[in-house]
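Internal tracking record. Fields below are filled automatically when a chain is submitted to the structure queue. Please do not edit lines marked as system-generated. If the sequence contains nonstandard residues, flag them in the REMARKS field before resubmitting.
Queue: standard
Priority: normal
Entity type: single polypeptide chain
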Amino acid sequence: MNRATLFLPVLVLAIAAALSSIFIVDEREKALVLQFGQIKAVREEPGLYFKMPLIQEVVRYDDRILGLDVEPLEVTPLDDRRLVVDAFARYRIVDVQRFRQAVGASGEALAENRIDTILRAQTREVLGSVTSSEILSADRASLAGRIRDASRSEASTLGVEIIDVRLKRTDLPEQNLDATFARMRAEREREAADEIARGNEAAQRVRAQADRTKVELVSDAQRQAEIIRGEADARRNAIFADAYGADPEFFDFYRSLAAYRESLLAGNSTMVMAPDSEFFNYLKSTERAK
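SYSTEM-GENERATED OUTPUT FOLLOWS
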């Protein structure tokens, strides 16, 4: 009974020691075996490994591609037009032993802080060597490549590889937005004024051409009307001349009747004439009887 009582704790301790000496590394991570803070083994391949229980410990690091959002920073390009740049990076821990030596027990938090510092410095240097137009153009991809290449050598001292850098957003600083928008608005208003002036000029030309065409058409119409009226008067006079030549007395009688009709209409002015006036020749019965 006493032997069983003693054997059971020993067995439990042995099993616990055996379990604590076994660890598994999967394909998504790398591991370091530390003994009193010193690196004793590097485990980069997935599988089952052993360590000394209680004395050694296992520190695991992510072997996947990690992302880091760089804090927005203000840069000054060659044309002194300040811009706020927002970027992100993709990196991977390629040398866990160097990584441990560089950042110690702080791990990825300290590493990302140092990578952020490296990327910010290289971003200012690269973007400060070009104009704002190049930064805002399609050349941003090549500029991001330059930032990535320049950051790799410094990041390698941390045991890290910078895989990619991208510029997400490039904006004007908040204090410059109002002035920039005012300048853009003034430019658009000037362009609108130019367009309005050109439109008014074109409208004036169209109106002048239309007025000229109207005057020409009216003048031509009046000329043709005068010609037609003159031809009609000539034809009328020719008819009257023919009629007068055929029977002068009847023609005089016809013209007198027309004069009576016009002068004796209601509302005409009063005429005062002598009874023996030639105007009344065809109204005297004695003369008609003759």
